[in-house]
Amino acid sequence: MRLIREFDPWKNSLCKCPPKYTFNPYTGCKFGCRYCYITSYIKDGFTPRIKDIDFYILESDIAKIARSRLPIALSLSTDAYQPLESRYRLTRRILKILSRYRIPTLITTKSTLLLRDLDILRDMNVAVSITITTLDHDIAEKLEPYAPRPSARLKAIKQLAENSIPVVVRIDPIIPSITDDLNDIGEAVKTFRDLGARHIVASIYKAKPDNLKRVIEAFPEFIEQYRKIYEKGKRIGGYRYPELNYSLKLLSQVRDLVKSAGLTFNTCRDGLAHLDTPGCYCDGSHLLIKPNL
User: Fold this and answer.
1) Distance between CA atoms of 183 and 168, rounded to whole angstroms?
2) Which run of H or E residues covers position 184?
3) Once rounded to an integer, what is the mean pLDDT over residues 84-105?
4) In the chain, domain spans
5) 9, 43, 194, 268: least surrounded by Cβ within 10 Å?
6) Are 33 and 215 in contact (CB under 8 A)?
7) pLDDT tens profile 1-42
8) From residue 100, how far is each of 24, 94, 95, 104, 107 by CA, in Å?
9) Taking the complete model, does pTM exceed 0.70, yes or no?
């Protein structure tokens, strides 16, 4: 295949998701989330641009994927529904092809723009992951300056669930001293459940030099937590991980909150897969309809 790639591109041993393919219609992302890793890999990562997609080649790739019966994920390195999509509609055009070939599809987004495509999504084998790191408006505004507000994303969860589209909520990343209050997380989990979410993913912030600088600029108090927690942690694949006992304690508590709410749970690349609900995955692929073999 020439355009669509197998995931995981970094062959990360901490990734426990089943095999899948991935495609990003855009390069870079306008949402400018301070914790985002994209600027470590792409120059001007917060200045998005469209890809020059040869849709004949793309459809040829999709036809090959149809024979594999594996899902495709949109998008794992940028947001398929960032503001450019309202103008160029590349994601909508791709969804139409995926729907025609009946490809199981995973979408991860912070945007409410995907509600525009409910007419296509209703007839697809699709699971949607909505990232909501916090329900606190002020924190979200500083942390994710150009992304839709959490209240708008809550409405998206509700509308997707009302249309029988499985919804995963990603509380990802949880940032020590900024979004790690367990009372707030517990209330958020109940809200997600009541709106129709079926699965929760939580993961601790992994720092890279560029996103760490942005987080500290917005939240100067985080530097103390970084020195206390992260300097004791390991460096894995260019990321600084928090001290393992911190991650284990916090994610165990979040898992218990999710379980008490009656939902399933996964971590994501934290090295704590034993906390995951058996048979579930952080990409939400367990919520897809299994094809008849």
Assistant:
1) 20
2) helix 182-195
3) 98
4) 5-287
5) 43
6) no
7) 799 999 975 677 889 899 999 999 999 999 999 999 999 988
8) 19, 10, 8, 11, 17
9) yes
